[in-house]
């Protein structure tokens, strides 16, 4: 007789079998996404042990080997941090705002903390040191430095990225944030009462629930797609078309305005009219806040909210294609989904989440200095700029100098760092300096782009050296597929003393192929 397991039993069995934690949600995910068939009905769900075993033999067991086959035996699996759950790699303030191109805190910790192991044989940084991240991005280095009792300076050419970083490491009066956010939510609620969009959305959701239960039963539908019993593309399109008439009727019934009058800016193009009105409403309320830190953190909450409310499909959130202003077949969820017609629920959810994350970080933070400056790392005068913002840190840098760098430079032609937050540049009016980005996507990966990239990174290192101690340690995390870093080190008059090749798991991008990056350790020549 094949052995039947409840979800709880399955999680216990899999944990034992794989020798790593497999939660009941992991098992539910496998069922939900059709990886293993469900046995039983709604009330009591079971799986066959054989099905689980088959799944794990095919998928999990050989991940390390499969990756090594593709990327070479020199891959350092310790640096995959595979044992960490998502909640740990996105712990506390690290998930205050989305950001494409972020490294995980565990990687920073590994190189900046005081442990040693068979790969890391020395301790590079200690409490009270100063670290520089000249490509600060969303501030991962700053936050981890704070946790470890290390002072840190970040620089980023994108003003909004610096804003994200400074919001993460800022100190707040959490009670005041809670109170102010609640007041804004209340006003938004009153604003919504005079409009049709929430009642429209409630009715739309009810219709969708009935339709999806009938044509996309879960998890049977996904299981059938996975086992090629249904052609997802054809079926999805057909049902998408079928539902559109219901959608149109509701749009007319509630007189919902979909398109905005203008289509000049990102905010005009990527938001349904009713959503845009709410964004403007909340932004106006935030503008009235007098307390600067509260205003800053609530602007981050609004920015995160509007990013989630762009008129796009669930699978194109990271790479926008075309505005989606109707219901559609969603490949990610295996059913008909809809764009958003109100920011209300996201605003409330993110307000709570932000306060919770700030509280968590508060318990860990040390009394050290961190700041992100906005500027071009090729020529920024760090002491001068620090002097304007935090004279104490400027003095420290002058007197004790910076101990080293931990940073991940942009990779050649991969991401446009300003453009990924176009909505926030539009809304908050930060000045854009796209042309100063090193290696942006829009310049491609051709020979000229690669050369100008190498020159740019070398210039950053040369400029940073002015503030570094002589026996500095520089760590650069890079995907050096064009082998540019030996030349970069040469140009910056540095030598590469070690390289750590790490697998990058849990990537958010659609391309989930085996992928590695190198952590270059450089020192003075
Ligand atoms: C790979 S990201 C860093 C991500 C960061 N480690 C994190 O975890 O969030 C590279 C960053 O370099 C910034 N950048 C590009 N050119 C720059 C320049 N000339 N000066 C300073 N920063 C620059 C980009 O805006 C981007 O935020």
Task: Give a verbal description of the structure.
The protein has 21 helices and 11 strands. By secondary structure, it is an alpha/beta fold. The model has no long low-confidence stretch (mean pLDDT 92). Helix 15 packs across helix 16 (344-364) and helix 17 runs antiparallel to helix 18. It has helices at 7-18, 24-32, 49-59, 63-71, 86-89, 105-112, 140-147, 159-169, 174-193, 197-215, 220-226, 232-254, 266-269, 273-287, 292-308, 344-364, 382-389, 391-400, 422-428, 447-465, 485-491; strands at 4-6, 46-48, 130-133, 151-156, 328-330, 335-337, 370-374, 402-407, 468-478, 494-503, 516-524. A 7-stranded mixed beta sheet has the order 7-4-3-8-9-11-10, sandwiched between helices. It has a two-stranded antiparallel sheet with strand order 1-2. The chain binds S-adenosylmethionine. S-adenosylmethionine is lined by residues 99, 101-103, 134-135, 137-138, 140, 155-158, 161, 376-378, 408, 410, 417, 436-438.
């Amino acid at each position: 007789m094949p052995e039947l397991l409840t979800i709880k039993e399955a999680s216990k069995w899999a944990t034992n079998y794989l020798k790593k934690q497999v939660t009941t949600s992991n098992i539910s995910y496998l069922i939900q996404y059709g990886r293993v068939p469900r046995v039983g009905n709604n009330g009591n769900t079971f799986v066959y042990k054989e099905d689980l075993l088959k799944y794990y033999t095919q998928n999990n067991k050989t991940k390390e080997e499969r990756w090594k086959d593709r990327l070479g035996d020199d891959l350092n699996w310790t640096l995959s941090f595979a044992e960490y759950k998502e909640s740990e790699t996105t712990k506390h303030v690290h998930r205050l705002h989305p950001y494409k191109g972020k490294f995980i805190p565990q990687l920073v910790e590994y190189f900046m903390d005081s442990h040693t192991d068979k790969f890391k044989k020395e301790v590079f940084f200690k409490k009270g040191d100063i670290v520089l991240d000249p490509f600060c991005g969303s501030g991962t280095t700053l936050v981890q430095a704070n946790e470890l009792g290390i002072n840190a300076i970040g620089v980023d050419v994108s003003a909004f990225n610096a804003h994200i970083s400074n919001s993460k490491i800022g100190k707040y009066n959490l009670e005041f944030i809670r109170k102010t956010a609640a007041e804004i939510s209340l006003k938004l609620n009153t604003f919504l009462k005079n409009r049709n969009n929430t009642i429209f959305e409630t009715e739309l959701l009810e219709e969708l629930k009935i339709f999806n239960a009938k044509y996309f039963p879960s998890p049977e539908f996904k299981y059938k797609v996975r086992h090629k019993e249904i052609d997802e593309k054809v079926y999805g399109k057909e049902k998408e078309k079928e539902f559109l008439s219901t959608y149109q009727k509701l749009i007319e019934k509630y007189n919902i305005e979909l398109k905005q009058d203008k289509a000049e800016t990102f905010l005009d193009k990527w938001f349904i009219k009713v959503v845009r009105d709410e964004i403007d409403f909340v932004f106006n309320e935030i503008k009235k806040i007098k307390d600067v830190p509260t205003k800053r953190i609530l602007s981050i909450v609004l920015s995160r909210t509007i990013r989630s409310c762009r008129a796009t499909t669930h699978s194109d959130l990271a790479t926008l294609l075309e505005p989606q202003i109707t219901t559609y077949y969603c490949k990610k969820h295996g059913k008909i989904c809809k764009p958003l017609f109100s920011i209300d629920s996201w605003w409330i959810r993110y307000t709570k989440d932000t306060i919770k994350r700030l509280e968590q970080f508060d318990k860990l933070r040390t009394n050290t200095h961190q700041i992100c400056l906005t500027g071009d790392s090729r020529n920024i005068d760090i002491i001068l700029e620090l002097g304007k913002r935090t004279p104490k840190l400027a003095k420290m840098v002058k007197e004790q100098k910076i101990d080293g760098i931990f940073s991940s430079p942009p990779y050649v032609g991969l991401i446009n760092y300003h453009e990924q937050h176009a909505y926030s540049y539009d809304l908050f009016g930060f000045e854009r300096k796209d042309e100063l980005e090193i290696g942006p996507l829009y310049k491609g990966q051709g020979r000229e782009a690669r050369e100008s990239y190498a020159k740019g990174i070398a210039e950053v290192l040369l400029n940073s050296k002015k503030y570094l101690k002589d026996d500095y340690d520089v760590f650069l995390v890079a995907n050096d597929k064009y082998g540019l870093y030996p030349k970069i080190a040469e140009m910056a008059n540095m030598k590469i003393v070690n390289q750590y090749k790490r697998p990058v798991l849990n990537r958010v991008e659609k391309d989930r192929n085996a992928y590695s990056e190198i952590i270059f350790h450089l020192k003075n020549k």
